[in-house]
Amino acid sequence: MQRVGIVAKTRALITGITGQDGSYLAEFLLSQGYEVFGMIRRSSTVNFERIAHIQDKISLVTGDLLDEVSMINLLRQSRPREVYNLAAQSFVQTSWSQPVFTGETTALGVTRLLDAIRIVDPEIRFYQASSSEMFGRVLEVPQTEKTPFYPRSPYGVAKVYGHWITVNYRESHGVHAISGILFNHESPRRGLEFVTRKISNGVARIKMGLDSTLSLGNLDAQRDWGFAGDYVKAMWMMLQKDTAEDYVIATGETHSVREFCEVAFSVVGLDWKKYVVVDEAFMRPAEVDFLVGDSGKAQRALGWKAEVEFPSLVEMMVRNDLECLHP
């Protein structure tokens, strides 16, 4: 009598699983039947809030992008088929005050992880979270996979390094390594240090009578904002392709910080001009004024498209912050 074997689940390892993208990606991979491992640093400050609802369905393992030996041990322990590198010092403003640390994690951390894959199992499929901040002072509009990089912050510079080291491990070592050049993507799980969540939370606090003003930097900065839940699906789609290539993921629309304020305050019936204050302290040393991506390649090759539109995204974030503040 022939024994029927149990089909093993595909294993995926996510670095940065406690962040916005990591939590949405973990949810999505679980829905696809994956066994999900999440890397966390052995630190007392780790925040599990974003993954609390799925923590019993995933396996958390310790590792650190600053330590290649820990990466090797982590890969040997989890034996993933796919690795999604979402961990980084990911706040542009902080990269100016911590440029060396940003380089160690966001740039060299990618090398350590790729080298660990080369040593442990070169068959692993690797996803690198590249960023539209690499384009910086844009040299063409809209930005595509072929647009030259001109980063305008230590974060952007570090991401360029991470991007090109991924390309080099693909071309020199044969690793199935892909960079997703994701434009800004937001959600109710976005950290409060990011301008979109700062606005949605500020609107909710003003509506609830907890604050009277909202201090922001450059209101003219324009971004291509999408929904993080849509963008993590693109990450997965990229790794399912047999040919490793890089893709821009974006909505193709651009909106200013001012417009984000207008929509956010309108959700609660308030005039943004009465509450928003421009504060020089929140201006970047070198501003990135205009980012808008062309995701045509991803639409054609992956069948991906953004589903949540800008006004719906802003409303989603404001209403979530209102719910969080209700007694």
Quick description:
This protein has two domains: 11-186 and 225-249, Rossmann fold; 195-222 and 254-291 and 309-325, Alpha-Beta Complex (UDP-galactose 4-epimerase, domain 1), CATH 3.90.25.10. 40% of the residues lie in helices and 15% in strands. It has ten helices and 13 strands.
What does this protein look like?
The protein is α/β, with parallel strands linked by helices. The protein has 2 domains: 11-186 and 225-249, Rossmann fold, CATH 3.40.50.720; 195-222 and 254-291 and 309-325, UDP-galactose 4-epimerase, domain 1 (Alpha-Beta Complex). Helices cover 40% and strands 15% of the residues. The chain has 10 helices and 13 strands. The chain has helices spanning 20-31, 68-78, 92-97, 99-120, 154-173, 195-207, 228-240, 257-267, 296-302, 310-325, and strands at 11-15, 35-40, 59-62, 82-85, 125-131, 176-182, 185-186, 214-216, 222-223, 226-227, 247-249, 255-256, 276-278. Helix 1 (20-31) packs across helix 7 and helix 6 crosses helix 10. It is globular. The N and C termini lie far apart (62 Å).
Summary tags:
2 domains; UDP-galactose 4-epimerase, domain 1; Rossmann fold; alpha/beta; 327 residues; two-stranded parallel sheet; single chain; seven-stranded parallel beta sheet; disordered N terminus
Structural class: alpha/beta
Report Rg: 20 Å
Beta-strand level of the residues, as a percent range? Answer: 15-25%
Distance between the termini: 62 Å
- Main beta sheet strand tally, sense and closure: 7 strands, parallel
Biggest sheet strand order reads: 3-2-1-4-5-6-11
Helix content: 40-55%
**Count of strand segments:** 13
Task: Output the CATH homologous superfamily of the largest domain.
Answer: NAD(P)-binding Rossmann-like Domain
Averaged pLDDT: 93
The CATH topology of the largest domain corresponds to: Rossmann fold
Reading the helices and strands in chain order gives EHEEHEHHEHEEHEEEHEEHEHH
Number of helices: 10
Shape: globular
Q: Low-confidence stretches at least 5 residues in length (pLDDT < 50)?
A: 1-5
